Amino acid sequence: MIKVGDTLPSATLQEYSEVEGEGCSIGPNPVDVGKATAGKTIALFALPGAFTPTCSAKHVPGYVQHFDDFKAAGVDEIWCVSVNDAFVMGAWARDQKTGAKVRMLADGSADFAKATGLTLDLTGRGMGLRSNRYSMLVKDGKVATLNVEAPGKFEVSNAETLLAQARG
């Protein structure tokens, strides 16, 4: 499992853009994790699935609500990563009104989740291999803090915990 001090694994996530601009076309666009985190501080949180109860009611809204606080604490971007396709993440972004506050990034084949060692097997519940629920502060591609939830819990990966860590 990835730990504090490690570099994020090489992976490509997908992001759905509804408008063209800054080199992004409409539709899924690749996001190279290494290039996208270089020289930046990223508040990254991951969760088992889009539109799931805890994720939609608590996890994403907390990060959207605290966007300005994260910026004030020196965070350049907030990322939400889930094992869903880019189209689902785009629809979820609209539903959650993330706008330019939270980048909703798809890990469609769970490659990033597998590479971090933070997978959650929900095959028995018909959801297949997913990402565990966690948050991390990433500085220039390296993990500065890591908060991994126990199964079925939502206690340490919330926006307030990661914000306190970002404030140092």
UniProtKB/TrEMBL annotation:
Pfam families the record matches: Redoxin
GO terms of molecular function: thioredoxin peroxidase activity
Documented EC number(s): 1.11.1.27
Keyword Oxidoreductase: yes
Keywords for this protein: Antioxidant, Oxidoreductase, Peroxidase, Redox-active center
Annotated active site: C55
Signal peptide: none
Enzyme class: oxidoreductase
Catalysis performed (reactions): a hydroperoxide + 2 glutathione = an alcohol + glutathione disulfide + H2O
Cellular component terms (Gene Ontology): cytoplasm
Keyword RNA-binding: no
GO process terms (BP): cell redox homeostasis; cellular response to oxidative stress; hydrogen peroxide catabolic process
Segments forming domain Thioredoxin: 2-168
PANTHER family per record: PEROXIREDOXIN, PEROXIREDOXIN-5, MITOCHONDRIAL
Function: Thiol-specific peroxidase that catalyzes the reduction of hydrogen peroxide and organic hydroperoxides to water and alcohols, respectively. Plays a role in cell protection against oxidative stress by detoxifying peroxides.
Family: Belongs to the peroxiredoxin family. Prx5 subfamily.
Protein name in the entry: Glutathione-dependent peroxiredoxin
